[in-house]
Design brief:
The chain is α/β, with parallel strands linked by helices. It is 43% helix and 13% strand. It contains 26 helices and 16 strands. The strands form four sheets. The chain has a six-stranded mixed beta sheet. A four-stranded mixed beta sheet has the order 2-1-3-4, covered by helices on one side. The longest helix is centred in the C-terminal third of the chain and has 18 residues, at 506-523. The radius of gyration is 27 Å and the shape is globular. The termini are far apart. The chain binds iron/sulfur cluster. Iron/sulfur cluster (SF4) binds at residues 341, 359, 501-505, 508-509, 546-548, 550-551.
Length: 608
């Protein structure tokens, strides 16, 4: 299938419009390419050249960026681009069978464009819709609750070339599925309240920003993305840097399979997220903010832009916020383009700069040299919500919830084998058992907390707690009942890490692919005890020698399930119960008789 003809003047006009909108800076390369991709379903070669020329960068750099991100392509994807979510919980509901059904009906191979250039079908690690899957993106729009009937109707729509925006509206219904609320989801403060509270700390000659930072530290707000770094310490370190301007980044790239809480916060509490970013801007003396929105959440972009526009209109963003001279802060939204590793803070900053999302060497830390060399803080969506509430209600209020070491609440994204998947907000310190009871889980044998890179908890550990002193978690909570095979869950995770490794460092690039191969070998009934040992050795190697957290944690689900669900592995191993074809010890019987010896030393040693 040759590429469709594109009128050169139309192409040039599109490229120029994207560059005019974003600015002719290399920093905007990724955003410009995304716009072109959306318009033409790929980035045509002529566009590559024009972008390189207008941004004054090499063609190789443009191609390098296109090759890095899953949501960019230099070859046409067709009029319809279908991308299935491939989380393990989607597979548990038959997503792979639905994908096969669609490919059969459309006469296409997965990952390839149809002969007539109409449609391509692919899959991605997670769409952040694990509570209402199986799901897919149709030209960037999410379709949930897939079943055979819906797939059949969708194929009919595609074959009759009905535009996606004319498909039945109920297919695109996204539910928030909020099942339990606490202070973040229940808060009824008005836009601007937390900023006013922050500004009020500066009355009477007090250093307002420092007073705010002191409170954030005293509240012991730990990062909600999973790493649990002390937010106030990070902010203060950034504020101490002499370089200006400083930058506030909201990491809305929740790519960890099993997580979808940020989707709900960005839908329901977007004002609070931006409020928290603005409070942070006041605290560290930043003028520039970014929301890095994962490409899979592109459908949230218009609503988020509307929030920013409203806040500018109301004097909550822009120059002299709430009339405070010198308090200038604004926020832009950059979209990711389908790369899991960009959830790592330094890779995210690289991506914000329009580059491939390769994690940086540290030091220097981002608080010293981040976006374009400027002091930068990167925090999770939920962390900014909590920071806004601390500014508004104070330290004591915040610390009244949670445990002594883990203050506040945590949003959990619950999915898998339970009656009520969705969002649950609990004070930190909640037990696994309590979450399982609330979500209607039965016969549970395991919970994967924090996604594939997190912790696999078995039945003996259900009294453990979600807290930074026990199980750290970004919020994913995947439930597996007795019908599930934990080896297959771990094998799925092994594939995920091998697919998502950015390839920058050898231990991760090679190690994750070796682990995937070993798991497939065991799955095929060709594995041995030696392979199980090798898995452990690879995990130790990855943990010690990888450049970033992806590689460090890639072996975790394998060693944890191997330790806790060993029979699931062992029953697949080759059985060595083979009778030898020749009895060597028996053949030596005559020699023993001749020498008059029959002591143990005259026999061949059997297997130990
Ligand atoms: Fe890339 Fe993996 Fe190395 Fe991280 S550990 S930099 S994801 S190759």
């Amino acid at each position: 299938m040759s590429a469709p003809h594109i009128d050169p003047s139309t192409l040039d006009a599109c490229v120029d419009a994207a560059i005019d909108e974003w600015g002719a800076e290399p920093t905007h390369l990724l955003q410009v390419l995304r716009e072109i991709q959306e318009r033409f379903n790929h980035v045509p070669p002529a566009a590559v050249e024009r972008v390189a020329s207008r941004l004054r960068i090499s063609i190789a750099r443009v191609r390098g960026v296109i090759g890095f991100y899953d949501f960019l392509s230099d070859r046409p994807w067709g009029l319809y681009r279908i991308v299935f979510s491939d989380e393990v919980v989607d597979r548990m509901r038959g997503s792979h069978l639905l994908q096969e059904q669609m490919c059969r009906a459309l006469w296409i191979e997965p990952g390839k464009l149809s002969e007539d250039g109409l449609v391509s079908v692919a899959r991605t690690a997670s769409l952040g819709l694990g509570d209402q899957g199986p799901s897919l993106l149709a030209n960037g729009r999410p379709v949930t609750r897939l079943d055979e009937a819906r797939i059949e109707q969708m194929c009919a729509c595609i074959l009759e070339r009905r535009p996606v925006d004319q498909w039945p509206a109920e297919w695109f219904l996204i539910e928030d599925n909020v099942r339990r609320r606490d202070v973040v989801l229940d808060d009824a403060s008005a836009p601007g309240d937390a900023i006013r509270a922050a500004l009020a700390r500066g009355a009477g000659g007090v250093d307002g920003p420092q007073a705010l930072l002191d409170e954030i530290k005293a509240a012991n707000l730990l990062g909600r993305g999973g790493a649990g770094f002390t937010t106030g310490v990070k902010w203060e370190s950034c504020r101490r840097q002499k370089v200006e301007p400083r930058v506030v980044v909201c990491n809305a790239d929740e790519g960890e399979p099993g997580t979808f809480k940020d989707r709900v916060l960005l839908t329901r509490r977007a004002e609070l997220v931006v409020e928290g970013m603005t409070v942070a801007g006041y605290g560290i003396g930043a003028t520039q903010g970014f929301i890095y929105l994962r490409g899979e959440y592109r459908w949230l972009l218009d609503a988020l832009r509307a929030v920013l526009a409203r806040r500018r209109r109301d004097g909550l963003l822009g120059r002299s916020i709430l009339g405070q001279g010198g308090f200038d802060f604004d926020v832009a939204i950059h979209c990711g383009a389908g790369s899991y590793v960009c959830g790592e803070a330094s890779a995210l900053v690289e991506s914000l700069e329009g580059k491939r999302g390769i994690p940086r060497n540290r030091p220097p830390r981002l608080a010293e040299r981040g976006y374009l060399g400027r002091p930068t803080i990167v925090n999770n969506v939920e962390t900014y919500c909590a920071a806004a509430l601390i500014s508004l209600y104070g330290v004591q209020w915040f610390r009244a919830r949670g445990t002594a070491r883990s203050s506040g609440t945590k949003l959990m994204s619950v999915s898998g084998d339970c009656e009520r998947p969705g969002i649950y907000e609990y004070p930190l310190g909640v037990s696994i058992r309590e979450v399982l009871a609330d979500c209607g889980a039965r016969d549970t044998i395991a919970v994967q907390c924090g996604g594939p890179s997190g912790t696999c908890v078995d039945q003996d550990e259900f009294d453990r707690r979600i807290a930074f002193e026990d199980i750290e978690s970004g919020g994913a909570f995947m439930v597996f009942d007795a019908s599930r095979d934990l080896f297959e869950v771990a094998r799925h995770f092994a594939h995920f890490f091998a697919d998502e490794s950015c390839g920058f460092c050898t231990p991760c690039r090679v190690g994750t692919s070796l682990m995937r191969r070993l798991m497939d070998k065991i799955h095929d009934g060709k594995g041995s005890e030696h392979d199980l040992q090798t898995l452990g050795e690879l995990q130790r190697l990855l943990q010690a020698a990888s450049h970033c957290g992806l590689g460090e944690s890639a072996g975790n689900p394998l060693v944890q399930t191997l330790r806790k669900f060993r029979p699931a592995y062992e029953r697949r191993l080759i059985a060595y119960g083979v009778e030898p074809a020749f009895d060597l010890d028996g053949a030596l019987a005559r020699a023993r008789r001749m020498t008059g010896r029959d002591d143990p030393g005259a026999h061949l040693r059997g297997p130990e």
